[in-house]
Structure formats: C-alpha cells, structure tokens
Amino acid sequence: MYIVETLDNLIHQTAFFNLEPGNYLMIAVALFFLLLAIKFDFEPLLLVPIAFGMLLVNIYPDIMAPYGEGGAGGGLLYYFYKLDEWAILPSLIFMGVGAMTDFGPLIANPKSFLLGAAAQFGIFAAYFGAIAMGFNDKAAAAISIIGGADGPTSIFLAGKLGQTTLLGPIAVAAYSYMALVPIIQPPIMKLFTTEKERKIKMGQLRPVSKLEKILFPIVVTIVVSLILPTTAPLVGMLMLGNLFRESGVVRQLTETASNALMYIVVIILGTSVGATTSAAAFLNWDTLKIVALGLIAFMFGTAAGVLFGKLMCVATKGKVNPLIGSAGVSAVPMAARVSQKVGAEADPTNFLLMHAMGPNVAGVIGTAVAAGTFMAVFGVF
User: Fold this and answer.
1) pLDDT tens digits, 334-366
2) Cα–Cα distance for residue pair 93/91, rounded to 1 Å
C-alpha cells in the first residue's frame, strides 16, 4: 500500500497532471522560436534565452512564483524578472550597446538624426491605435515603444509606467520583431522605393576626429538630460558605454561592458522575458492586440523612415539612398544590415552599411527620447 501511494504521489507530481492545454501551445511556440534561432539563425542571442524561458515557465510555472507566495521563497526567474521591473537590465543593455557601437557615421552626417526621428512615427501611430483598442493612456504608451523595435526601452518604459501585467507580452513582441527585422522590413522598403532609388550610391562619409567622438556622448548626455531628465538612465548609460569606447583610456571597462557584462545581462533579461509568457498570462485578447499593434507600429516606423529618406533624396538631388531611412528604427545593427542587403540586391557594388548606421544610432536615441517624453507627460520619474 505504501509503495502504491508513493508511486501515485510521484506520478501526480509530474507536469503532465498540472499543465493546461494552453501550456502545451506555449511549449510548441517555444520550440518554434528555438527552431528559428538554431536552424535558421534568427537572432539566436535573443531568441534562445527567450524561448528557453518560455519553455521553463510553461512546464514548471513555479519558477516564476513571487517571493512569499505559499510561505516560500520566490522562483529563480522571479528574481531575474525583478531586475527587468526595476529597469536595471535595460539600462545595462544600453551601456553595452554604447560600448559596441561606433557613433562616427551619425557624427559625420548629422542629418541622420532626421531619419531616426522620422522612424519614430510608428511609436505614436501605435499609441493612438492602442487607445482606440481600449487600452488606457499609460498602457498605450508602454505598448507603443514596440514600434521602435527596441526591447530594452520597451521593458524600461513598461516598468516605469507601472504596466507590469503587460510587460511580458510587450517585451516578447518587441524582441520578436527585432529578431524578424530581416523578414519584415525588405518588402516595405521595396514597396516604397523604385529600383533606381535603391541603386543610388552615397558619397564617402567624412573622417571623424577622436575629439568629436569623445565630445559627442558628453554633449548628447548634457543636452538630452537637461531637456528630458527622465531619459537619463537610458541615454546616460548608452553614452557612458560609448565614452568608454572612444576615450581610449578604459579598455578593460570597454571590453567588460561590450562582452562579458553584455552577454550576462542578455542571458538574464532574455530568460526572464521568456518566463513571463505562461499560458495564463499570455493567452488572452490583450496579448493578441499588443502583438498586432507592435507589428503595425514597426511597419509604420519602417515606412515613415523610407518615405522621409525619399524626401531627403529629392532635397539633395539624388544624393541620399532612401533605403537608409528604414534603419531609423533602433534595432542596432540589424536594421542597418538590412538596408545594406536590400541595396546590394539592386546593385552588388553599393555599400550602404555605414550610411545606414547613422539613422540606426539616431533611432536608439530617438526611441529613448520618446520613452522619456511619455514619462514626462505622465509625471513619472
């Protein structure tokens, strides 16, 4: 009898007796994401930890159990997730991005700021779309940042605006669209440009001095933070990482921020974001609305960047290739690579990567400024 009871208890402790049909659906989604990442190389640095976090939480939901629930300590990934809520991990990601990125193309061609700003149109289109779908103003603001294809900023703003119940779907949507940039953007870019425009070759960028590269992060931090102090955590960390890189005197800090620290943060952030996708939290109409709004916003942002690029092409009498406008979304450096790829398809001798990096970096700053604007509007610090 004792053996039978013991075996019965063991069997009922397996996940098979505790999972709902929705959990199996989310497990299938996690396996699909892993397939995309491993077999097709779709942004594996993002999708592998996100998908594995999704897999874990839908097999063992208590891995995300809050501290004190049932008189016990919290689940492992709950503590990872708190670092997202507190905006610690998004800010550290920005420092790593700054340490890895050359701002030279943006400094050499300041007009790139306009293309980065134009691509933020998707954010505000998504904001009004979310309001129309019944979300409150703060939720709409948190959702809208998905249009910038910027996962860290999406997490940062959702946490600051108190939209923790939506943080998981928002983060997963933002990172998914970042990973799918090479699929989503090219059809839109080709739709709004002619083959002749895609073949436009841009002149070589002027050399940027070391002094300019050192002064840029300092000046941007001062100017942007004075105008919008709420952007200081993101813009400040982005520029600090870039100052590490360009100063040339803290090589160890540069290497740590752009390698070891960056990858540690990606593991923790990606896994915890994936762990917010339990079936109970994720499979509802609000999630579907968020995913749809994010896609629409991203498409609008891409289209707006390309259309503004066409305007600049006309204004400069054919000296600007409109394709670089699509890089104004802040998926660095993926969006710039897509601009290069589409341009090279039209003319294999065309080299747009460095020109596209200008709007790409401007898009990172622009998305952070958009988030800071929403925080200022709602009185959140």
Assistant:
1) 899 999 999 999 999 999 999 999 999 999 999
2) 5
The per-residue b/e assignment along 55-84, b for 16 or more CB within 10 angstroms, e otherwise, is bbbbbbbebbbeeeeeeeebbbbbebbbbb
Mean pLDDT to the nearest integer, 32-40? 91
Q: What does the alpha-carbon distance between residue 282 and residue 113 come to, in Å, rounded to a whole number?
A: 36
State both tokens at 146: 């998905």
Q: Which amino acid is at 286?
A: D
Distance CA 94, CA 100 (A): 10
Question: Contact at 8 Å (CB) between 230 and 381?
Answer: yes
What are the E-state strand segments in 5-148?
none
* Beta carbons within 10 angstroms of residue 263's beta carbon: 12
Q: Which residues touch 224 (CB under 8 Å, ≥6 apart)?
A: 231, 235, 365, 369, 372
Residue 280 confidence class, pLDDT cut points 50, 70, 90: confident
**Separation of alpha carbons 345 and 362, rounded Å:** 25
Neighbours of 319 (CB within 10 A): 12
